[in-house]
Design goal:
Layout (H helix, E strand, L loop, with lengths): L4 E5 L4 H6 L1 H10 L4 E6 L1 H7 L7 E4 L8 H13 L4 E4 L4 H5 L15 E4 L6 E2 L10 H11 L26 E5 L13 H13 L3 E4 L6 H10 L4 E2 L6 H10 L2 E5 L2 H9 L3 E5 L5 H4 L6 E5 L8 H9 L3
Parallel strand pairs: 1-2, 1-4, 2-3, 4-5, 5-6, 7-8, 7-10, 8-9, 10-11, 11-12
Helix pairs in contact: 9-10
Amino acid sequence: MADEQILVIRHGALGDLVQSTGPFKAIRAHHPKARITLLTAPAFAMFMHGCPWFDRVWQDHRPRWHQFMGWLHLRRRLRGAGFTRVYDLQTSSRSSLYLRAFFCSYLGAGRPDWSGIASGASHPHDNPGRDMMHTLERQAEQLAMAGIANVPAPDLDWVEADTTRFELQMPYALVVPGGSVHRPGKRWPADYYLELCRRLLAVDIQPVLIGGRDEIHLTGVLSAQCPGIRDLADQTSIEDLTVLARDAKLAIGNDTGPMHVAAVAGVPSVVLFSAGSDPDLCAPRGARVSTLREPDLAALTPDRVWDLIADSL
């Protein structure tokens, strides 16, 4: 229907957003003439402006509970857009609360159809085992319960960037040694990454370190101890990372967002998991993705990782 106004809610983090690109594509295919709006975190708004499946992208600044004016602005914006259906792919307590923004003075007036877990949703994802499903299966089932039967794999083929400014030596490998600062147990030891980079250089593959601002010190130490490493921490956008991954020989790193980007871009990827996360629930998926897991990543030796990488070289 040409007059459909659709809202999709997906904040992030980066890996979650990337894994939702298949559902994004499915929603557009199911509503080809609708005006579809994405509500996402400010960190991802510019990136998602380039996505072909949305007509507009809104930033959700997620006001704190005491910020009354922020909540009032959000409520007015949601109610004023005339949304006829909402796909809440975030399915958090916060995003579920947004359903209340559509209530008017009398019961149900102006409330859109709602796919999610919010109380009162017209199309609830009410599988009691949903939290034990991988993200991709969980979202596919949620959309199936809302009438969307076919959900493709995550897709970043639409992303473009000019990465020639980095002047990388071919072949190269993307190495992602960082991750959430709040979850250090998800990081493979830095000295293991140093050994891995030395082994890559020994077979004429340039290690290219990828990370955000929080990883600058880590990547700086690694590159200082191993001449030949290229350190791109805090220098790449999501678009840059996607294009760099397409041309890489392989990617290896911890369970963190850039590895989801690499996996969807199609590069052979090795992702390292600790007890801090479960690959059965959140691992990047793809024909060229491998995972290794140890409860304590210090027990995962460079030899074991190298043996798996060697199969991709």
